[in-house]
Amino acid sequence: MSKPGKHLFLDILHSEGVEIIFGNPGTTELPLLDAFVVEDRLRYVLGLNEVVVMGMADGWAQATGKLAVCNLHAAPGLGNAMGMLYNAAKAGAPVLVTAGQQDMGIRLTEPLLWDDLATMARPLCKWSFEVASIEELPRAVRRAAKVALTAPTGPVFLSIPGDILNAVAPDDLDIGAPTRIGAAVRGDAAEVARAAELIRAATNPIIFAGDCVANRDAFAEMVAFAEAVGAPVYMEGMANRAAFPSNHPLFAGTVPRMTPALRAATRDHDLVISIGADLLTQSQATGVEGLEPGKRLVHLDDNPWEIGKNFAATAAIQGCPKATLPELTALVAGCGAARRAGVEAKIAEAKAALLAKAEAVMDAQPMDPLAVLKRLGEVMPEDAIIIEELLSSGMNVVRSLLPATRPDSWFGMRGGGIGVALPQAAAMQLANLGRPVVALSGDGSLMYSAAALWTLAHYKLPVVTIVFNNSSYRILKQRTRAIGDHAAREDRYPAMDLTEPAIDFMALAAAHGVAGVRVESIPALIEAFEAALASDAPTLIEVPVARAI
Questions:
Q1: 189-343 maps to which CATH number?
Q2: May I ask the CATH architecture of the domain 3-169?
Q3: Signal peptide: which range, if any (predicted)?
Q4: Is the dihedral of CA 173, 168, 127, 432 positive or negative?
Q5: Whole-structure pTM over 0.90, yes or no?
Q6: Is there a contact between 155 and 89 (Cβ–Cβ < 8 Å)?
């Protein structure tokens, strides 16, 4: 039986394993919304703007590994979503982004809201295409799903004109079937053997673990490899996932996203081993190379673009960490036995110093972020999912203070575009009903996507949002001061204070239907946090923290 395009589209998505469409509708999407009147297999989840919608789709894709679908409205809707689409691209989130296009019959007149959507989206997507007929729709959706879910995964885009959603498909139209390309590709045997030789010959190796480890379900394989090598394990500079358990004695923390920091961390090591890690997305230009010239590097990743992108790899292995690490681990087994105890002792000493530093400021007023994070870490549920967007309050220490012991326990802002925490938390709660979901956000970041609070309330998602409020863009103040010019001398930072008036987060929460609590001390914070965890509704906890830079 022939069907209109709107039902055909939903049929295909359902067969591709899609469960939710995250959207904010407009006129060109109305046929699709009309189809949802009788659709009982897929769910439409509403966000109040495209930042929220795209962030939710990104979060769902990362949390589940399944294809997420984000439905936007024409050119302005796609434009509004581009910042969050950038983050999804950097995180490798398999998202099918669709935008309702104006009818094909009037596109040449350049109607209101029209633009070349496929060209707009192309720089941030693995594949971008405008569907020109009902006959093209099945093949386009099938290809988009296949491309998004093929390693290295990432977003794809389809522009779908409204008249195609209303058009009736021919009776004999073949709607195809899903294609999935196996991701467990083993690295080249010769390169694996070469990497093993380098590792066995090294006297003081260092390991960087990246998102690819968690994305490919290689958590256990990563741990076995690190224990065999007996080397400290750092997260990549723009760490997004939990690629190594933070409670493991070889977990050394994170390296700042600055080349001098990477160079300092690797200086005394004669071999750098990157397992799916980014080497290195810099936050700012420093005039210093991240690795010393000639530093030997073993680099394993399923994305050939990343291997040797910035630093020559002595052993370059394209392959899935889950499929390749066991072979490499077997070849280097026992090589780190003699040094492992010393490495672990050094890491333990550094962590003890951090914990002591945090304990020393436990009674500070306003609250010190170190103290806040330490106490939260002590009461955080073991199965919690943490979405972290703390630019200045937790930079480079938060993973050492809060637990990240499972590959699905931690998500961050991989692309660096702020405003991700709340939308991602909403989707991750939808994907993990029954598990605690905790969003940690700065005050400036939260304001980029505050409308997501409504989605939390509307769908009764018991996310606990903790906003670290320093009433400023503190990280920008720090970096402006580092320039060493006018701001440093006069201690003035134009356009970086969120005051006069101060943002009333309690009123903001109430306006969106979310319970709000402002705390002034660490004991009050823990009391509010535990109450929020026990609630079946969303809670926003405001934590005023020190403004000093």
A1: 3.40.50.1220
A2: 3-Layer(aba) Sandwich (3.40)
A3: none
A4: negative
A5: yes
A6: yes
